[in-house]
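tokens incoming
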């Protein structure tokens, strides 16, 4: 892993968002939009949520970034806009909060919010990655769906006012969570293209996982955790991994760093740096079927190469249905039984 010097950052005239959008992100969005009731929820929220209300809230409670306030962030944003040749510059706010967080929201005019907890944790080049990550979200149109997710999570406990059934809404929330995790992979690619500093991109994930003591951590060891996570355990661990991710809006930090490494090792990052990337003026000619085929190829490659115990079993299932089905039933049944026993012990006051 090498670091590109600040002074030789490449710019990408006319770059399309398709350059950094992860195939899983684009596929999840297509699936999300096809869900029954999704268009109704989108239209309802678009009518109820006032864009100005969101912006006014942060105007009143946060600090708007410009050449006079948080000047370093202002320059980082300008640089990212220039590198990605962004047609617009989203507003940027700093919010007082100890939580390490950054998000981009808005239905019509997306804007970005960074917390002071994040600013205190990251150095300048790490912040450049974060700002580029959020700019990628804004340019890819992610802010609309992220805003939907935030509000649906708030009202999911009382859904009577929405013109869809409760179970349909829960399905849309679950699909939005799945998409949200995939969209973070796209944002990370945009952040790397803005910073062009691989070490800084890894440090961001190291710090979100382990805090500010980055001198006590090691890049190689951190990334090897993802390899251990994928390879280790048996089928029960594969099931538990899915359960751990179910309610997460972001992928785990270690896995995000490994996914970014995978993109670099594929050669795609270097191809973009050399000028080989899709242009915005070609977007209209792009067929969604072509995008789906590309995503399918990516999924197939990842599936074939994965060392995850659950995926290994599924592959085995394709070769030997009977034996693998028996294994699945035994392993999952055992896992559920143990989880049920733990839950019963907890209810009964046991350890």
């Amino acid at each position: 892993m090498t670091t590109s010097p600040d002074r030789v950052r490449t710019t990408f005239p006319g770059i399309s968002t398709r350059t950094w959008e992860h195939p899983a992100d684009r596929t999840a969005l297509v699936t999300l939009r096809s869900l029954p009731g999704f268009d109704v929820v989108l239209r309802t929220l678009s009518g109820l949520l006032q864009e100005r209300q969101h912006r006014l809230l942060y105007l009143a409670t946060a600090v708007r970034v410009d050449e006079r306030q948080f000047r370093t962030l202002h320059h980082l944003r300008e640089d990212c806009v220039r590198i990605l040749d962004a047609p617009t510059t989203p507003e940027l706010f700093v919010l007082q909060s100890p939580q390490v967080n950054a998000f981009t929201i808005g239905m019509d005019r997306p804007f970005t919010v960074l917390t002071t907890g994040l600013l205190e944790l990251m150095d300048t080049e790490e912040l450049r990655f974060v700002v580029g990550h959020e700019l990628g979200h804004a340019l890819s149109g992610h802010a609309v769906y992220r805003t939907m997710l935030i509000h649906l999570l708030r009202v999911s406990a009382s859904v009577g006012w929405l013109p869809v059934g409760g179970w349909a809404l829960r399905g849309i929330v679950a699909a939005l969570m799945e998409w949200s995790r995939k969209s973070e992979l796209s944002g990370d690619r945009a952040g790397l293209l803005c910073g062009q500093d691989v070490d800084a991109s890894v440090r961001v994930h190291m710090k979100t996982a382990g805090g500010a003591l980055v001198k006590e951590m090691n890049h190689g060891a951190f990334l090897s955790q993802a390899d251990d996570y994928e390879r280790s355990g048996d089928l029960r661990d594969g099931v538990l991994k899915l359960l751990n991710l179910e309610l997460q809006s972001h992928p785990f930090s270690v896995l995000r760093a490994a996914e970014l490494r995978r993109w670099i090792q594929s050669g795609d990052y270097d191809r973009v740096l050399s000028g080989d990337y899709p242009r915005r003026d070609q977007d209209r000619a792009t067929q969604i079927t072509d995008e789906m085929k590309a995503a399918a190829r990516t999924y197939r490659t990842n599936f074939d190469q994965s060392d995850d115990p659950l995926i290994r079993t599924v592959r085995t299932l394709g070769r030997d249905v009977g034996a693998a089905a028996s294994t699945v039933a035994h392993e999952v049944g055992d896992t559920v039984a143990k989880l049920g026993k733990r839950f019963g012990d907890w209810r009964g006051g046991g350890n």
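note: DSSP finds 16 helices and four strands in the chain.
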